[in-house]
Amino acid sequence: MLRHRQFIVCFFLLLFFFSSTGNAQPLADTRICLDAGHGGHTSDDRQIFLPNGIVYWESEGDFTTSQHLKTMLEALGATVKLTRSDNSDASDISLSERAEIANTFNSDYFHSIHTNGGGGNYSLVLYKEENGEPAFPQAEQMSGFMAPNLQKLMKTEANYFQGDFSFLGFNLGVLKYVFMPATLSESSFHDLPEEGLRLTNSEYLKNYAWALCQSFLNYFEGAGFSSGRVGGIITDVTSSSVVNEVTVQCIPAGIEYTGDNNYNGFYAIGDLVPGNYTLNLSKSGYLDNSQNITISANEYLDLDLTIQYFNNGFPNLDFYVVGLPAGAGEWLTFNAEKSSDDGFIEEYRWDFGDGTGTETGVIVTHLFAADGNYEVTLTATDNEGNQSSITKPIHIITQNPSIPEGISVRYINEHKDLLINWKTNPESNLAGYHIYFSEKADFSDEILLSSLDPDQNQSKFDDFGEKDQLYFFRMKSENIANKFSDYSDVYSLYKSQNPADKPNVLIVNGFNRNASYTGLNHKFVSSYTLGLAKMQAHNISSCSNYAVISETVSSIDHDVVIWFLGDESTANETFNNAEQLRLKQFLESGRKLFVTGSEIAWDLVAKGTPEDLAFYNNYLKAEYWDDGANGLSPASGLPGSGFDSLTIHFGEVYPEDFPDEIGPFGGSSSILSYKNGANAGIKFKGTFGTSDKEGALVNIGFPLESTGSQTEIDAFITKLMAFFYPGSTSSNDIRKDSINFNLYPTMTLNQLDLYYEIPSSMNIQLEIYTLNGQKIYHLNDALETGTGHISIPTAELEKGNYILKVSSNTILKSMRFVRL
After folding, report:
1. Which of 185, 184, 204 is nearest to 194 (CA)?
2. Distance (Å, rounded) from C-alpha 38 to C-alpha 116?
3. Helix ranges restricted to H, 452-517
4. Domain 738-819 - what CATH class?
5. How far is the C-alpha of 275 from the C-alpha of 577, rounded, in Å?
6. What is the C-alpha to C-alpha distance for residues 487 and 71, in angstroms, rounded to an integer?
7. The sheet that has 762-770: what strands, in order across it?
8. Report field, pTM of the whole predicted structure over 0.70
9. Helix orientation angle between 58-75 and 202-221, rounded to the nearest 10 degrees
10. 466-473+489-730: which CATH architecture?
11. Rounded to an integer, what distance in angstroms lies between the CA atom of residue 3 and that of residue 259?
């Protein structure tokens, strides 16, 4: 724990007061919105397990930094708004909500605070980029201040600042919709163990805040702090290991700091007026040490210090523990390599405090058989017979095991026997699995089907189930402490009366991301199964996308695949190379695919490789128009598309901020439009790749399962299957396929030309909409049978993106263009 004590030195305090207020209120009349990334310990937070059982949560570090920065900015006269006032789970609001807070506050500047992960050792600042240029040039200027300031204050080796799209391949959601200059900082990498330990230190997080505040002073005033700051790492001069809880006294400032016990060795002292000081270091068992320093205004003195262990020749002991947090039956490693002596240590003896006796060695492993608080004592004897001991508390608390990941639920042996597969859990103290089933989607009549050993990953049940009966399945895992995981995702299956005459449908759960949807598990497979089973015409199996990748389940063994991805995006990959290969084989074999998800086009086109783009265009038969925004629900069926009269209110089960706006490609046609008139989905029948077999595809740019209405899902699936198996396809749908509209050029200055080919004369309406749904142009016209074109003036339009909507009583088509 950190401890600060301010000594009463009246003369110095008066000197500091007049020095620090000489440039009084330099940020007066400035409004700043600060966003502490993440919130609570939700699924999108970063939980980093560090040595000695210490845990760093990014949400906690970000929030503490925002509190420090708020205090500093307000002391300089700024008015500050935080997007979250605590670190509860409820504070993890959506990215668009954070942007809206900044907009409503009428901020002069918006900044989002984060720490980084994934390997590296640099400080990073990003700003919103549009068309290769900063959306706000001021944000690029601020980034140029922040990045080097962060490198000076944090233990990083380099700094970078860049537009978000150039750096990431996409725009950051938290910056996308703010109406003022904005940046996002990643101060350092929390998954570097030494840095992660430092980030648990509040004074180190104050370094982060100090660098940001210094940047705001640079940005708004061109000036900096009137005071300075000193900090660094304190290590043992012999072993070079960090030393906990060293007291640093700054004379004559009268400020005393005592380090924490989190194995970072960090100290820092701030608010020092320019001048000369002495730092006095002390800790029991060590020799005192002193260091003279000179502080300059607006400068951070990065100064590592050492302290000499002295205990009359006795061993200097320390050890760290790898594997914490841990529960009963989980192995821990105890490592005393950082211990030292003026000669050498002959024996390391460990007593774990659990009655199991002692073990010897510099590095040993041990497990505790039961939960509890244990005192682990290391005793070392050196070559002179001197002995030292050190004792540390170890808390063994068995957590609930991880949720088992289901792979597939399907019938085998001519739809007679049931086979369930799953991935084995990683825990070493697992006791087994429990499989439950129900005939109801809400599991109100849940039955325990089987309990299985921890090394099993599948189970077969002979002669399972009745025809025309739906079954739903889920699992739990249990550990040796009799603690249970939460339920797994739900999988389901259905067996029709005459399986040989019915298409086999496979529902693939590709929704592995927790972002807008924050639940630990979901029942979305059930939504699709219910819609199919109500038609009483299909055999249904379900599986995870991993089952298709690993070929545990062969998609080609099925006639129809329904693949849902929720808001799966770039971090999880919507369709990786292996999945793309499986779907290419599936479609080329003449089968039928339905794909639904909000960021498939974003991932494969905006962020993807040329191979991803080719897959999206040539196999998912669509082109990417735009990363949609809030307010596009509901999606509506287009007249004559075969999906007529549909209204789908998506984004109700979980928020959907960025549904893909997609257009037809390669012979496909539109079936749905969003509220703003942009295309929301396409359909296609024909051949794929080099195959001569006709397949079929429906691809929509939002998650169908996010609607709160099972009735709306059922209605969509009914039309989907009617398109795949056209016994009930309407005449309007056939007529729609014989009508063609093409728009040239799609990037224009003065005029658009709409070319058409129609089988009979008709009256149409032409309307132009902005992307936020505002109608700005309307024309009624009569078209004669055959081919022709209509010219539409665009010179009066402002530069930007627009939607041209063509409609009549039987058709509706939306096309996008850009006014240059």
Report:
1. 204
2. 12
3. none
4. mainly beta
5. 61
6. 43
7. 747-748, 812-819, 800-807, 762-770, 775-783
8. no
9. 50
10. 3-Layer(aba) Sandwich (3.40)
11. 7
Tokens at residue 437, please?
């089933």
Tell me the domain boundaries of the chain.
Answer: 23-225, 320-396, 466-473+489-730, 738-819
Tokens of 421: 């597969």
pLDDT confidence of residue 506: 96
Q: Please report the sign of the dihedral spanned by the C-alpha atoms of residue 59, residue 61, residue 62, residue 66.
A: positive
Q: Are the CB atoms for 176 and 103 separated by under 8 Å?
A: no
Alpha-carbon dihedral of residues 705, 710, 711, 717, nearest 10 degrees?
A: 50
As a three-state string, the secondary structure of 540-597 is EEEEEHHHHHCCCCCHHHCCEEEEECCCCCCCCCCCCHHHHHHHHHHHHCCCEEEEEC
DSSP-derived 3-state class of residue 334: strand
State residue 772's pLDDT score.
66
Q: In sequence order, which residues have a C-beta less than 8 Å from that of residue 423 and are 6 or more positions away?
A: 404, 405, 407, 457, 546
**Assigned superfamily of 320-396:** Immunoglobulins (2.60.40.10)
CA angle 764, 769, 774 (to 5 degrees): 125
**Cα dihedral value 782, 787, 788, 789, nearest 10:** 90
Ramachandran angles phi, psi of 299, nearest 5°:
-125, 145
Q: Which residues of the chain fall short of a pLDDT of 50?
A: 1-23, 728-738
Q: Are 320-396 and 738-819 the same fold in CATH?
A: yes
Q: Residue 812: its pLDDT value, please?
A: 66
Q: Round to whole Å and give the CA distance between 364 and 710.
A: 57
Q: Say if residues 6 and 254 touch (Cβ distance below 8 Å).
A: yes
Look up residue 774 and give its DSSP letter: -
Identity of the residue numbered 476:
K
Sign of CA dihedral 511, 516, 520, 524: negative
Q: 23-225: which CATH topology? A: Aminopeptidase (3.40.630)
DSSP 3-state of 815: strand
**Three-class SS of residue 248?**
strand
Question: pLDDT value at position 1?
Answer: 30
Residue with token string 């970000």 = 62
Token pair belonging to 284? 């029991």
Task: Residue 98: name the closest of 168, 154, 174 by CA.
Answer: 174
The set of residues, in sequence order, having a beta carbon less than 8 Å from that of 254 and lying 6+ positions away, is 6, 7, 8, 9, 12
In this structure, the dihedral spanned by the alpha carbons of residues 648, 649, 651 and 653, taken in order and rounded to 10 degrees, is -100
E strands, 585-732, are 592-596, 622-627, 635-637, 647-648, 660-664, 669-673, 679-687, 694-700
d(CA 630, CA 643): 23
CB-CB neighbours of 228 under 10 Å: 23
Say what the pLDDT of residue 310 is: 81
DSSP structure class, residue 111:
E
How far is residue 582's CA from residue 548's CA, in Å, rounded to a whole number?
Answer: 7
Q: Which two tokens stand for residue 747?
A: 């990037």
How many residues comprise the chain?
Answer: 820
Which tokens hold the place of 58? 């990014």
